[in-house]
Amino acid sequence: MNKITITPQSGLILEGGGMRGVFTSGVLDCFMDHGIRFPYTIGVSAGACNGLSYMSGQRGRAKYSNIDMLDKYHFIGVKHLITKGNIMDFDLMFHEFPERIIPYDYAAYAKCTEEYEMVTTNCYTGKPCYYNEKYNPHRIIEIVKASSSLPFVCPIAYVDGTPMLDGGITDSIPLLRARELGYNNNVVVLTRNKGYRKEDKISKIPPFFYCKYPELRQAIASRNMMYNRQIAMVEELEDRGELIVIRPTQPITVSRMEKDTSKLLDLYNQGYQAAHAFI
Measured between alpha carbons, how far is 66 from 18 in angstroms, rounded to an integer? Predict the structure, then answer.
């Protein structure tokens, strides 16, 4: 097994996956416990949320907000979809949490010398957008909220007035983005076990969804095939020894909207141990 070696060309790529992202929380807490920092990190959706706490050096914050606070605030569920048009309580998650309940250290993030990008999907173009905002707290929240806005169950979000949705629609595992920027010594954190693939076919989108955004509809319809191509590339480069992949070793029983905190804690611990094996 290769061990993590940080060079000026090292990048860290964080997949999304909703509540499966607690695996990534465990990985990042392990990195923080061992002082491991990457010159470049990029996160998608739940990976973008977890990555923010990693960049500010707030060890345990992502775990606390995703697991400990879930029992108390129940911020995921159909009731939120009915009352707020969103499967998740974004007011709580992106305002109450970072401003009051689990304050985010914007000053520490602004001072960190490493580069951090978050991925969104532009509804007009159906293409990924990459943002590296460090200094404007309001815009940071706009971006991470957009990156986490799942199609169909979350409202469209806006960054600089442009409609956006979940970055995982168009770039679920942004390894190519890291390589294009010159980061070729990469660690990829996945939230599915090796060999996992989505159903490899075009998805049918009901005509009343996103009718104003035909390019977005096309991106959502072809998302599964895009994801499978990215996974195949990751596995090929991993087999050639060109990158390190940290992933769950067993098929995941945690759902994207999982509410069972015992399952979530177990997956967090799996992430911590999986990362430790590469240190």
Answer: 10
Q: Give me 113's structure tokens.
A: 């010398």
Q: Please state, in angstroms and rounded to a whole number, the distance separating the CA atoms of residues 164 and 148.
A: 10
CA-CA distance, 75 to 73, in Å (whole number)?
A: 5
DSSP-derived secondary structure for 230-275: HHHHHHHHHHTTSEEEE--SS-----TT---HHHHHHHHHHHHHHH
The residue ranges of the chain whose pLDDT is under 50 are: none
Tell me, what's the pLDDT at 75? 86
Distance separating alpha carbons of residues 12 and 36, to the nearest angstrom: 11
Is residue 108 within 8 A of residue 61, CB to CB? The reply is no
- Of 183, 237, 246, 176, the residue nearest 3 (C-alpha): 246
How far is Cα 279 from Cα 262, in angstroms, rounded to an integer? 26
pLDDT tens digits along 69-104 = 998 888 898 888 888 888 999 999 999 999 999 999
pLDDT at 183: 98
CA 25 – CA 54 distance, rounded (Å)? 9
Torsion of CA 76, 208, 122, 246, to 10 degrees: 40
Cβ neighbors of 82 (< 8 A, separation 6 or more) are none
CA 272 – CA 189 distance, rounded (Å): 12
Contact 40, 183 (CB under 8 A): yes
pLDDT at 252: 87
Tell me, what's the pLDDT at 1?
A: 76
Q: How far apart are CA 67 and CA 19, in angstroms?
A: 9
pLDDT of residue 84: 82
